Amino acid sequence: MQICKKLPLGIECEVLRKQLFKAGTSIGANYEEADGALTKKDFINKVAIARKEAKETKYWLRMVNEEAPFNSNIRCDIREAEEIICILSAILKKSGYKFRL
Q1: Tens-binned pLDDT, residue by residue, of the chain (101 aa)
Q2: CATH no. for residue 60?
Q3: Nearest to residue 50, comparing CAs of 77, 85, 19?
């Protein structure tokens, strides 16, 4: 979460920093829980939560890019979030998860 460290000090960026850090670290934590799930239902639930957190991370990365465009590599981070979302979506599809429209 190097981006969080690079954000300028100030109340506006503090909100972005906290939200980005929480959502970004939650992806891995929920996937780890999915990996240790005891039931298929629990596995699907944890992967779905990880996907939601990845989508939220992508949102916060876009907000950071708009508010503090200090680093051109942030677009790479947004693409990486999109790839993670695609990977988690594929896992859910293969597990039989029904996406809401």
Answers
A1: 677 777 778 887 888 889 999 999 999 999 999 999 999 999 999 999 999 999 999 999 998 888 766 666 788 899 999 999 999 999 999 998 887 75
A2: 1.20.1440.60
A3: 85
Domain that holds residue 24: 10-94
pTM here is: 0.87
Residues 70, 67: Cα–Cα separation, whole Å: 9
Residue 55 lies in a domain: yes
Domain tally, the chain: 1
Do residues 34 and 17 touch, judged by C-beta distance below 8 A? no
Within-domain flag for 3: no
Question: For residue 80, is it within any domain?
Answer: yes
